C-alpha cells in the first residue's frame, strides 16, 4: 500500500522538504499563542518567615520602611491545619449520622447498628460483632470529635508556619516589591528595614499569591528541606521502579511466556490477532502511568495548579518513552535504551535491526494504537470505570446509611487536567511523529482529537465538580506540544540517515531544521525564566477590593478581606453538637440546632429519610 511508505517516495524532489518546513513553522508560531494577558493582584505570598514571629505589625513595619510608597492593608499567617481538617471532616460525618438516626428514631423507635466495616454488605451475626444504639453511637462520636476539634483549634496559634499572605493597597506596589526581591539573582540585596535582623527579610521568598481556592492548605506544613527530600526520594523510587518496567512490551512478553494469549491467537481471526497487541499496549499504557500520577499526591504540592502541571510533565515524559521512543527503536525498557545509547560494545552483542524501524508495519502498529485510543479510550473515559470502582468500594466499606449518603454526595471529584493533558499531548505527539512516514495516521489523529474534545467537554460539564486552576497550567500544556514537531523532525532525520544516507540534501536540511528548532526552544525557555514573574490572569484587581474570594466558604462575606487567605476550616462557624442522649444540658430540646449549618444539615437528612419512607410506603401493598 503506497500510503504507508514515506513521503519521499511519493512526492517530487522539490517537495521533499515540505514536511520539515511545515513542522518548523508550526513549532515557531506556537510560541506566539503562549503570551497571555496577565492581570495584576495585590497579594503576595511570603515564605521563610521565622516561626516565632506572631505580630503582623512587624511585617507591616518592614514593608512600610523598606518601601515607603507601599501600603499594607492585611497580613495573614498560615498554620498547620492537617489534623484540624481531618477532625473537622470526621465530626461532620458523625453529626450527619446522628441527625439521620435521630429523625428515624422518632418514627421507628430505637435503631441498632453494627459499627464494623462492611456492616452493610455482611449483616450476619456469625462474626460476633455487637449491635449498638445508632443515635447514641454517633452522638458519642460527635462529642468526642468536637472536643478534639476544639482543643486542636485552640492549639492552632502555636502551629504557625513560616508563610504569610500580605495584601497591599495597589497592584503597582506588588510589582515593585516583586521586582526588588528578584534582584538577589543578580547579586543585589532587597531593601532593608529596622526590623530586618528580626524578620530575616533577606532570606524571604516572595511571589504572587495564588487564588485561595487553588491553595492546598494542609500541604503548607511540608516545606523547606523536608519537602525537597520527600520529592527527590519519591521520584528516585519511581525512576528505579520504571527503569526495569517501562513499556507494556515487558508485561506482554511475560504473558507470552505463559501462553496467555495463545487461545486468542488460535482463533485465526485477523481482526482479533491484529488488534490484540495494540489493545494490550493501550491497557497497560493506561495502568502504568497511574504510578506516576499518584506519586504527585505524595509530594505535597502547595497549589493544585503546580500539582497538575508536574503530573502533566512527568506523565508525558513517561508516555513518550513508553509509547513512542522505545517501541519505535525496538527496545523494551529504559535499561536497554541507556545501554544502546552509552555502551559502545552493546551493538556488537545485541541483535537490533534498525533498518526495520520505519517499515510500514511499524507505522500500521501506531495507526492501530491511535484507533484504539480514539474508540475504546474515549468510551472508557465516558464509563469512568476506575471512579466507579472506587465509588463501589467506598459504598461497601460504609457502616451505616448516613455514611452511604455521605459517599454518594461526595463521590464527584475535580477534573484532572494534568493527567488528561498528558494523554492528549502524547497521542498528538504520536500522530505528529508518524505523520510523515505514515500519513494515514493523520485522519485517525483528527478523529481522536474530536472524540477526546467531546468526551472531556461532557465530563467537565456533567461528571466532575467545577475547578479553576491557574492559566499557567494551560500555557505549559501548549508549550509541551512543542515536543511534537521536534520528535517529528528527529524521526524524519533518523529515517533519512538510515534510508538516504547522511550526506543526502534532505538529510542535511532536516538536520539544520532540527538544530534551529532546538536552539529556538532552548532560547525561548531561557528567556521565559529570565522574565519577571507575573500573576495568574484569574486574580483580577477589578473584582471588588481586588482579591478573589474563596468560593468554597460561602458563609464568609465578600467584604471580609482579613479571612480570604485563610484555610476554610478556620473561616467557618464552629459547629456545636446537637442535644443528644450523650450530651444534654438544662432546658435543651432534642430537635434544637445550634447553628445555621446544623439546621440545613438536619433538614436535608430528614428530607432524605422522609422521601425514602414515603417511597417505601407507596411500593408496599
UniProtKB/TrEMBL annotation:
Polar residues composition bias: which ranges?
594-607
MF term (GO), any? calcium-activated cation channel activity
Superkingdom in the source lineage: Eukaryota
Give the CSC1/OSCA1-like cytosolic domain ranges. Answer: 42-219
Keywords of this protein's UniProt record, alphabetized? Membrane, Transmembrane, Transmembrane helix
CSC1/OSCA1-like 7TM region domain spans which residues?
232-501
Locate the region Disordered: 590-621
Q: Which reaction does it catalyse?
A: Ca(2+)(in) = Ca(2+)(out)
Sorted alphabetically, the Gene Ontology cellular component annotations on this record are: plasma membrane
- Mind telling me which residue stretches traverse the membrane in this protein? 15-35, 227-251, 271-294, 315-342, 421-451, 481-500, 506-527
**What's the name of the protein?**
Transmembrane protein 63C
Organism annotation? Engystomops pustulosus
Amino acid at each position: 500500500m503506497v500510503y504507508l511508505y514515506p513521503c519521499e517516495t511519493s512526492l517530487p524532489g522539490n517537495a521533499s522538504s515540505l514536511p520539515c518546513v511545515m513542522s518548523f513553522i508550526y513549532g515557531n508560531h506556537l510560541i506566539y499563542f503562549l503570551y497571555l494577558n496577565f492581570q495584576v493582584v495585590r497579594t503576595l505570598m511570603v515564605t521563610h518567615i521565622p516561626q516565632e514571629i506572631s505580630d503582623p505589625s512587624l511585617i507591616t513595619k518592614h514593608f512600610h520602611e523598606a518601601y515607603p510608597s507601599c501600603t499594607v492593608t492585611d497580613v495573614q499567617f498560615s498554620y498547620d491545619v492537617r489534623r484540624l481538617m481531618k477532625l473537622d471532616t470526621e465530626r461532620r460525618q458523625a453529626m450527619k449520622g446522628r441527625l439521620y438516626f435521630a429523625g428515624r428514631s422518632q418514627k421507628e423507635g430505637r435503631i441498632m447498628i453494627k459499627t464494623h466495616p462492611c456492616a452493610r454488605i455482611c449483616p450476619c451475626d456469625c462474626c460476633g460483632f455487637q449491635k449498638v444504639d445508632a443515635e447514641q453511637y454517633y452522638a458519642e462520636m460527635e462529642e468526642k470529635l468536637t472536643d478534639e476539634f476544639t482543643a486542636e483549634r485552640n492549639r492552632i496559634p502555636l502551629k504557625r508556619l513560616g508563610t504569610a499572605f500580605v495584601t497591599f493597597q495597589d497592584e503597582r506596589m506588588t510589582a515593585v516589591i516583586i521586582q526588588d526581591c528578584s534582584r538577589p539573582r543578580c547579586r543585589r540585596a532587597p531593601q532593608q528595614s529596622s526590623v530586618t535582623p528580626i524578620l530575616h527579610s533577606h532570606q524571604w521568598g516572595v511571589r504572587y499569591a495564588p487564588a485561595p481556592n487553588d491553595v492546598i492548605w494542609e500541604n503548607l506544613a511540608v516545606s523547606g528541606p523536608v519537602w525537597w527530600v520527600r520529592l527527590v526520594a519519591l521520584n528516585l523510587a519511581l525512576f528505579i521502579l520504571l527503569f526495569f518496567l517501562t513499556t507494556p512490551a515487558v508485561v506482554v512478553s511475560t504473558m507470552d511466556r505463559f501462553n496467555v494469549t495463545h487461545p486468542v491467537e488460535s482463533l485465526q481471526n485477523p481482526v482479533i490477532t491484529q488488534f490484540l497487541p495494540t489493545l494490550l499496549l493501550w491497557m497497560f499504557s493506561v495502568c502504568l502511568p497511574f504510578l506516576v500520577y499518584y506519586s504527585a499526591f505524595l509530594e505535597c504540592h502547595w497549589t493544585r495548579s503546580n500539582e497538575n502541571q508536574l503530573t502533566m510533565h512527568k506523565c508525558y515524559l513517561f508516555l513518550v518513552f513508553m509509547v513512542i521512543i522505545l517501541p519505535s527503536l525496538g527496545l523494551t525498557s529504559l535499561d536497554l535504551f541507556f545501554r544502546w545509547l552509552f555502551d559502545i560494545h552493546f551493538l556488537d552483542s545485541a541483535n537490533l535491526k534498525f533498518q526495520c524501524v520505519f517499515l510500514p508495519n511499524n507505522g500500521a502498529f501506531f495507526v492501530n494504537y491511535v484507533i484504539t485510543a480514539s474508540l475504546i479510550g474515549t468510551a472508557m473515559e465516558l464509563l469512568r470505570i476506575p471512579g466507579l470502582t472506587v465509588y463501589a468500594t467506598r459504598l461497601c466499606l460504609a457502616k451505616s446509611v448516613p455514611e452511604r449518603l455521605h459517599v454518594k454526595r461526595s463521590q464527584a471529584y475535580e477534573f484532572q487536567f494534568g493527567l488528561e493533558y498528558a494523554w492528549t499531548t502524547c497521542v498528538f505527539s504520536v500522530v505528529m511523529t508518524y505523520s510523515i512516514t505514515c500519513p494515514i495516521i493523520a485522519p485517525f489523529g483528527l478523529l481522536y482529537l474530536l472524540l477526546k474534545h467531546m468526551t472531556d467537554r461532557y465530563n467537565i460539564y456533567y461528571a466532575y465538580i467545577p475547578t479553576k486552576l491557574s492559566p499557567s497550567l494551560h500555557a505549559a500544556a501548549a508549550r509541551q506540544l512543542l515536543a511534537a514537531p521536534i520528535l517529528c523532525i528527529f524521526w524524519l532525520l533518523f529515517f533519512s540517515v538510515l534510508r538516504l544516507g547522511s550526506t543526502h540534501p534532505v538529510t542535511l536540511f532536516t538536520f539544520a531544521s532540527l538544530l534551529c528548532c532546538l536552539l529556538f526552544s532552548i532560547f525561548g525557555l531561557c528567556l521565559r525564566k529570565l522574565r519577571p514573574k507575573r500573576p495568574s490572569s484569574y486574580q483580577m484587581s477589578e473584582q471588588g477590593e481586588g482579591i478573589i474570594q474563596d468560593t468554597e466558604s460561602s458563609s464568609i462575606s465578600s467584604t471580609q478581606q482579613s479571612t480570604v487567605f485563610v484555610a476554610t476550616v478556620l473561616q467557618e462557624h464552629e459547629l456545636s453538637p446537637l442535644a443528644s442522649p450523650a450530651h444534654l444540658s438544662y432546658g435543651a430540646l432534642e430537635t434544637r440546632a445550634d447553628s445555621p449549618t446544623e439546621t440545613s444539615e438536619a433538614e436535608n437528612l430528614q428530607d432524605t429519610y422522609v422521601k425514602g419512607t414515603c417511597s417505601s410506603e407507596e411500593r408496599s401493598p
